[in-house]
Each structure stands twice: as structure tokens, then as C-alpha cells.
Write a structure and sequence with these properties.
The chain has two helices and four strands, in the order E-H-E-E-H-E. With about 90 residues, it is an alpha+beta fold. A four-stranded antiparallel sheet has the order 2-3-1-4, with helices on one face. Helix 1 (about 15-30) packs antiparallel against helix 2.
Length: about 90
């Protein structure tokens, strides 16, 4: 397993309960694939540098994970499908 930093941006119009459920769902993606989520850092609502999918603001979430390649692939697959995640990046440390 490798260490990764995963950042994703959630649409600003998602209510707090749905946002918490989405964050839990993303964390569960990693734990289901024999990986660990070491830290969840919610940066909150921020202004975007440029418009993404019609949005000018977004809710930022940063994860530090020890993950298998399969877990990272599964996260990226799901992040591409979820309409409430407007952007993500995965960086190996």
C-alpha cells in the first residue's frame, strides 16, 4: 500500500446531511478495498479559481489514505460518476 492525498470538491448546493453522507460513502470506498483513511480534513466552502461545471464555489475535502491501487481506481471511477463531486485529484506521497 502507498500513501495518497485525495482532494475532491463537492457542489455548493448539496445540503449538510447529504454532504456528510457523501463523505462517509467515499471513506467507505477505501475501507472496503483493504485501505485505511488516516485523516479527513474538511476545508469547507471556498471560492473556485475558475468555473467548474457551472459552479463558482465548492466544498473542499482532503483525505490522507494508505490505499491499494484497486481502492484508488474505485474512488476515481465513483468520483467520475457522482454528479455532486465536481472535481478530484489523487496524488501519491
Amino acid at each position: 500500500m502507498k500513501k495518497y492525498e485525495v482532494m475532491y470538491i463537492i457542489r455548493p448546493n448539496v445540503d449538510e446531511e447529504a454532504r456528510k453522507a457523501l463523505i462517509e460513502e467515499v471513506n467507505a470506498l477505501f475501507t472496503a478495498k483493504a485501505s485505511t483513511v488516516d485523516n479527513v480534513n474538511e476545508w469547507g466552502m471556498k471560492e473556485l479559481a475558475y468555473e467548474i461545471k457551472g459552479e463558482t464555489k465548492g466544498y473542499y475535502v482532503l483525505l490522507n489514505v494508505n490505499a491499494t491501487p484497486e481502492a484508488v481506481k474505485e474512488f476515481e471511477r465513483v468520483a467520475n460518476i457522482k454528479e455532486n463531486i465536481i472535481r478530484y485529484i489523487t496524488v501519491a506521497e
